[in-house]
């Protein structure tokens, strides 16, 4: 199939200047209006200056200087005769206790400002709008750039966190007695670096600070892909306000959330895995390196249930007749793209009787499975980590809830409810500690474009998984559960390496599902060989019918993980509508891991995998991080010609099917034929 790729439309820009400044925490305060199909409210961002303040390259500076200054004009704030000393522009009801249109029919908004067509360089900063003064490199003001699309930004202001009662304990310097920018920034620096054991206090003060009055509006401008903010006279990221509030509203046609009806005909809205991620739900830093925590208060009509990526199982708080509020929070830093929300008339599904024991349920940990209980300090940034919690490490089945439209109650009780405990237990037996403390499972509307999607603390499943026997539901549930480790707790530093998420989940779903069914070793092997045969045929078909450029698992090659000095980059083919229907990253990644597991032997491979999870959870990785650690754990006699370079060349940086896979599959077929002839 001859498909012409167009980088100006296929590549997704990540413009946030994470090299200069990082968001550490988001506080969202939102109202959901189904009549207008708009989500409106505010978001408060708490920053920490980054560690890369290098002068931008001369070529970028020359581009800025040569382009018209028109691109660098900013909206001046409206004259404000009364200083902002109250919180009327945002909710005072905060408690303390949004995705594809799936690559299909994605609207091109380039006609709005013409910037999309200027997207010419892979660095993502060829247009003057994308490079003006984003760092401290002269007399110009520092420019904060956030990823933003399909949003109406109404107001941006600095937050006077010094006005919060009790906040003075974070002002460490006795010389800072006068309220100033320096004092406010010092308070935020202390707040964002509180130790993990003070996370409740930290969340409480984040919420209090988010309700503090504004202390000055900031200049801002938007274009197709970004929101740019500056404060006059502030030339360095270290001096830029460390807490700002953005008042905004979504647009009905925004591509981060989908407004639709559920299977019972009731309205709902949810994030369904858009190629543009969450930038049309809230302004954010989308590059995966910008790992942050968040808390959100969402108000909707009392008949609706709000589900979200959150550690707590939120319950509604009635604000007034007909309106309820829901509050969620997360203390494990995650990329903003993993934030998920679903609002609808969901009903919680509960089993009518006690679950039977026909599938594995909770059991004690045998001594042979105890080798994943490693000790030592975690390698990630500090947060309340379950891998350091003795009770969490032995928790085979985490608390879970199931939500769906009422009309699917029978199907959920018959199929889904009884599968979750054994699938969670099986995953724990393979990989050890569940990275997340709880799980919600939602049966999403019929327009959901895939079988499932995993986010922190929540899984979306298609209603298609409820049909027929339990096999489809079980395997898909196992796939999404696997993403808790690979894709969420361990993420790809470069999104083009999505095989690190999907390849692992595809390989692990077979292992989890076999254990959940309590299959004998021979039965498990036969089931996995059958699924390998089906995937082999699917991979061959996909390679024959897709562009070669999109068959490469590591398309950026030696530049994988590289970004500009500001932190901006692009996701190659990230907006290509065909990508949503391709499974190359799933299948080639699966066969690579299957090949490696066979080379090591399953026991050695999965023992290594538990060690890898313990080493890298809470962190971002590249392919070489996994491969180097794996090869270090392979006995010399099994390594043969394996090397990181050879695997890159043969599996990750080439289109088509690796030669080793042809050999491996032919050998497997030969073995199966021998079994048949021998009567096994």
Tally the beta strands: 24
Please tally the helical runs, counting DSSP H or I stretches of 4 or more residues: 16
Beta-strand share of residues: 15-25%
Mean pLDDT: 83
Strand order of the largest sheet: 6-5-9-3-2-12-15-14
Please give the alpha-carbon distance between the first and last residues.
42 Å
Q: What percent of residues adopt helix (DSSP H or I)? A: 25-40%
Unreliable stretches covering 5 or more consecutive residues: 1-5, 52-73, 75-133, 356-375, 673-680
Backbone structural class: alpha+beta
Biggest sheet record? 8 strands, mixed
Features:
single chain, 680 residues, alpha+beta, five-stranded mixed beta sheet, globular, disordered N terminus, disordered C terminus
């Amino acid at each position: 199939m001859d498909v012409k790729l167009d980088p100006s439309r296929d590549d997704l820009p990540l413009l946030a200047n994470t090299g200069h400044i990082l968001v550490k925490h988001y506080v969202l305060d939102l109202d959901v209006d189904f009549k207008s199909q708009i989500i409106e409210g505010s978001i408060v961002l708490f920053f920490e200056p980054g560690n890369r303040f290098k002068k931008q390259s001369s070529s970028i500076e020359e581009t800025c200087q040569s382009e018209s200054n028109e691109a660098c004009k900013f909206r001046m704030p409206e004259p404000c005769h009364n200083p902002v000393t109250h919180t009327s522009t945002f909710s005072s009801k905060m408690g303390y206790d949004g995705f594809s249109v799936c690559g299909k029919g994605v609207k091109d908004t380039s006609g709005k400002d013409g910037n999309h067509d200027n997207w010419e360089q892979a660095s993502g900063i060829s247009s003057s709008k994308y490079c003006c003064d984003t760092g401290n490199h002269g007399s110009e003001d520092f420019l904060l750039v956030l990823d933003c699309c399909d949003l109406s930004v109404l107001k941006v202001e600095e937050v006077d966190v010094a006005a919060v009662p009790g906040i003075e304990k974070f002002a460490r310097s006795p010389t800072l007695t006068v309220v100033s920018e320096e004092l406010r920034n010092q308070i935020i620096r202390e707040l964002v670096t509180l130790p993990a054991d003070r996370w409740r206090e930290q969340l409480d003060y984040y919420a209090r600070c988010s309700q503090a009055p504004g202390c000055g509006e900031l200049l801002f401008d938007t274009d197709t892909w970004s929101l740019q903010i500056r404060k006059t006279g502030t030339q360095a990221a270290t001096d830029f306000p460390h807490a700002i509030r953005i008042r905004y509203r979504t647009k009905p046609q925004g591509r981060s959330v989908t407004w639709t009806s559920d299977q019972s005909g009731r309205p709902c809205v949810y994030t369904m895995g858009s190629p543009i991620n969450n930038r049309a739900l809230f302004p954010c830093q989308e590059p995966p390196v910008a790992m942050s925590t968040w808390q959100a208060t969402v108000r909707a009509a009392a008949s609706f249930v709000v589900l979200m990526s959150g550690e707590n199982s939120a319950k509604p708080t009635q604000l007034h007749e007909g309106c309820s509020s829901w509050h969620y929070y997360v203390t494990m830093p995650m990329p903003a793209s993993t934030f998920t929300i679903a609002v609808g008339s969901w009903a919680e599904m509960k089993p009518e009787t006690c679950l039977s024991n026909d599938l594995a349920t909770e059991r004690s940990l045998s001594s042979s499975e105890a080798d994943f209980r490693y000790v030592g300090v975690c390698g990630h940034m500090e947060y309340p980590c379950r891998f350091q919690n003795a009770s969490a490490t032995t928790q085979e089945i985490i608390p879970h809830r199931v939500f769906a439209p009422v009309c699917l109650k029978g199907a959920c009780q018959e199929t889904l409810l009884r599968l979750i405990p054994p699938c969670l237990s099986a995953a724990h037996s393979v990989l050890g500690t569940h990275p997340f403390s709880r799980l919600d499972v939602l049966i999403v509307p019929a327009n959901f474009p895939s079988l499932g999607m995993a986010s922190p603390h929540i899984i979306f499943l298609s209603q298609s998984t409820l049909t027929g026997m339990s096999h489809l539901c079980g395997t898909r549930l196992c796939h999404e559960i696997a993403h808790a480790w690979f894709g969420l707790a361990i993420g790809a530093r470069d999104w083009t390496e999505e095989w690190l998420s999907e390849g692992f989940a595809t390989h692990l779903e077979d292992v989890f599902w076999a254990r959940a069914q309590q299959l004998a070793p021979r039965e498990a092997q036969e089931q996995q060989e059958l699924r390998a045969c089906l995937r082999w045929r699917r991979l061959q078909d996909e390679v024959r019918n897709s562009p070669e450029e999109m068959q490469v698992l590591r398309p950026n090659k030696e530049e994988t993980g590289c970004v500009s000095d500001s932190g901006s980059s692009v996701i190659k083919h990230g907006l290509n509508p065909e990508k949503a229907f391709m499974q190359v990253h799933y299948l080639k990644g699966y066969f690579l891991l299957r090949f490696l597991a066979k080379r090591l032997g399953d026991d050695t491979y999965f023992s290594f995998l538990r060690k890898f999870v313990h080493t890298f959870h809470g962190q971002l990785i590249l392919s070489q991080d996994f491969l180097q650690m794996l090869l270090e754990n392979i006995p010399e006699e099994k390594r043969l010609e394996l090397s990181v370079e050879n695997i890159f060349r043969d599996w990750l940086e080439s289109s088509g099917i690796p030669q080793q896979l042809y050999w491996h599959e032919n050998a497997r077929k030969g073995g199966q034929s021998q079994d048949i002839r021998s009567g096994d």
